[in-house]
């Protein structure tokens, strides 16, 4: 009976934790000059286990990415795959589901990493919200400089800076 209770508690905790995640993203890539460049980048991104679907918009050099449900997303791996294909991330806007996420001092954790809201100002976030990653390697230098802060958050993972 005791084992059944423990299993039930772990099951409920995993269900509520799974609701908080990145669901999709709009990735703008600079340096794409042709459809072959786009295809190479798309092929490289498809190797990531958390990406479900990718749709390319060649007119805007944008990839609309849908993430797999309940699989943690690693934003740094996205940037590395784009750079590995020979291009650069110009902008990454991701949609995050804030249901069951505690935000303390404009920060929250997900997948072992910390996310600092640079313009949160105590806003209450619920449901799906589009956030823009403003760190170096995810945004133009002017945007990065505008939001650059030196956070010393207590985390074993990386600290990302995001804007709403």
Descriptive labels:
8-stranded mixed sheet; globular; 164 residues; alpha+beta; 4 helices; disordered N terminus; Alpha-Beta Plaits
Short overview:
By secondary structure, the chain is α+β, with helices and mostly antiparallel strands.
Describe the 3D structure.
The chain is of the alpha+beta class. It has one domain (2-163): Alpha-Beta Plaits. The protein has helices spanning 2-18, 35-45, 75-84, 141-147, and strands at 21-30, 51-57, 62-67, 88-97, 107-110, 113-117, 128-133, 159-163. It has an 8-stranded mixed beta sheet. Strand 2 (51-57) and strand 3 form a beta hairpin. It starts with a helix and ends with a strand.
Strand order of the largest sheet: 2-3-1-4-7-8-6-5
Order of helices and strands: HEHEEHEEEEHE
Give helix % range. 25-40%
How large is the share of residues in beta strands?
Answer: 25-35%
The span between the termini is 46 Å
Largest sheet: 8 strands, mixed
Number of helices: 4
Radius of gyration, CA atoms, in whole angstroms: 17 Å
Q: What is the total domain count?
A: 1
Uncertain ranges: 3-18
- CATH 2nd-level architecture: 2-Layer Sandwich
The backbone outline, from C-alpha atoms, is globular
List the helices and strands and how they pair.
Elements: H1 2-18, E1 21-30, H2 35-45, E2 51-57, E3 62-67, H3 75-84, E4 88-97, E5 107-110, E6 113-117, E7 128-133, H4 141-147, E8 159-163
Parallel strand pairs: 6-8
Antiparallel strand pairs: 1-3, 1-4, 2-3, 4-7, 5-6, 7-8
């Amino acid at each position: 009976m005791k084992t059944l209770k423990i299993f039930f508690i772990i099951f409920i905790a995993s269900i509520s934790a799974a609701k908080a995640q990145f669901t999709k993203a709009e990735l703008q890539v600079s340096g794409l000059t042709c459809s072959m460049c786009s295809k190479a980048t798309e092929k490289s991104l498809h190797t990531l286990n958390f990406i479900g679907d990718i749709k390319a918009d060649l007119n805007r050099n944008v990839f609309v990415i849908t993430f797999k449900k309940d699989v943690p997303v690693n934003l740094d791996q996205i940037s590395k795959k784009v750079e590995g294909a020979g291009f650069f991330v110009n902008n990454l806007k991701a949609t995050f589901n804030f249901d069951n996420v505690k935000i303390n001092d404009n920060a929250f954790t997900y997948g072992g990493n910390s996310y600092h809201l640079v313009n949160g100002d105590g806003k209450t976030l619920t449901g799906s919200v589009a956030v823009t990653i403003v760190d170096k390697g995810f945004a133009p230098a002017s945007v990065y400089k505008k939001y650059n802060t030196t956070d010393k958050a207590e985390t074993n993972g990386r600290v990302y800076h995001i804007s709403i």
